[in-house]
Amino acid sequence: MKRVVISLLAMSVSTALMAAPPKFDGARISADVRELASDAYEGRSPATAGEEKTIAFLSKQFAAAGMQPGGDLQDGKRLWTQAVPLLKGDIVGKPVLSLSSQGKPQTLTQGQEIAVRAAMNGASAVDISNAPLVFLGYGVKAPERNWDDFKGVDLKGKIAVVLI
What angle do the packed helices 49-64 and 26-37 form, to 10 degrees? Predict the structure, then answer.
């Protein structure tokens, strides 16, 4: 009987230790955030050297935390990452956009008054002639703030104009 009690006590102590919440160190978290936000990571954008540095840093942290990689298989071992195809569009030349208001054309400057992005469907040009404009403020949808600039707005065949 004594052995049973000791065994149960040992099991309950080990279960309690296993169930202990993880320790969070605010200073360490701040140091990690400062590290990843530093110029050394070059903005962490996809397909850049900064992304590679970020992945290496995070992989090292995951391994130090005792995690196991679950990404793609390479040489019989799992990687920390998984290949995901990304679309990239480039604008060749300077985009030109002009609006007509009350019969008067107004040309807008890329990067100052407009932000034209490349089409992500492989199209080499986008024709938006005579498409109606719909102003959406800042284009914010924030249900936690009870705010939705898109609520009740039909954008089909129209151009959303937002402040940036």
Answer: 160
